[in-house]
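Hey,
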Amino acid sequence: MSTARTLEYRNIPVEIYTQAKWFLGCKCSKRLLKSGARLLRAATEAAAAAGMSVRGGVYSNFRGAGATALLVLAESHAALHTWPERQMAVHLELSLCNLGRDNADRVSKLLASLEETFQADEVRSSRPLENAVVEYRRPGYGYFLIADRDWARQRSQYQFIHLFQNRSFGNVLCLDGLYQTSDLDEWTYHELLAQVPALLHRNPRQALVVGGGDGGAASHLLAHPTVQSCTLVEIDPAVVEVSRQWLEGVHRGVWDNARLSVVISDGKKYLQSTTRKYDLIIADLTDPIGAAKPLFNASFYRTVASALAPAGLFATHCGFPFSSPQGSRGVVEHLRAVFPFVHLFHGYIPLYGAEMLFALCGMQEVRPNARRIARRIAARGLEPRLKGMNADYLVGRFALPTWMAAIVAG
């Protein structure tokens, strides 16, 4: 399996495959491992057979020992070093840029070809975090998940999509190197983003989700029997396709719900053209990069406000105030410039490894009341669906810790 690493800080994702492999107990000729020229020739043939573009190479022999060969590839580079005197071992270091093409198939072919060439008894990773999918938050700070198995890797018109299996989170969706949702903890995010506004609305009937192509937010909204219709506007059809196939634990079959309408379109353009008024509008967006960047400013929020019913509520996330305080502050300032009331709440999302800030906005103020929320949960039959949300927990989410309140102080 290939390793995909996001090397830049959050808003400049660069997909790079890196491999570090041991080929152990090689039964090939010792002459291959002692001759840099032979080693370079074998590596060149293997890379070309795998579909890589070889631009050149150099080698060096070590008297009485092994050799080193370095391939310069159009995709990046590969280096091989041999230890014929030490159990016929070969070490490979490979780096491939994934810009413009997913090179997973080429990596697999190269490894298989080299394993056959060296006739290795065993191929072993030399890195403890091989197959790690790393999300960097800021210099020196980030999180990783091990991709035990890849289900989908593709570059759509808008972003790089990676959907993989992880033993702790189940199936995980990554967009442009950023974790989005997972089978096993989706509720920690969606119960805050979708259930909070739905439970604070007296009688939500018409709902709109901007983004949310994984189906999670729509699934939570349609758990409310009062919601007569939910429109999901997603710009990237590829996200809907892979989510429908691999994220059943997130969407729970919502695609087959007759009350759901899916529109493949730009969210802002849809809001500008619609004449409908919504009781609930949820912005279920990635970080403010790429196609989602125009959906985190006052211009977009004014468009949202114009599509809200008089008592309508709008909810969105405001990012990670600890790792990106300026980003969170900026989102909140834009919201406050448009909506008469903006209430902030927060929650810890295990997949993100951090506290996330959310905003509840509208033209008519609402305040959380535990007794009223408890009655709505019971009346709408939500107890079996809610894993973390209850009346007291919901009210408590609006109490910001001191450090967070200072960041977004108006």
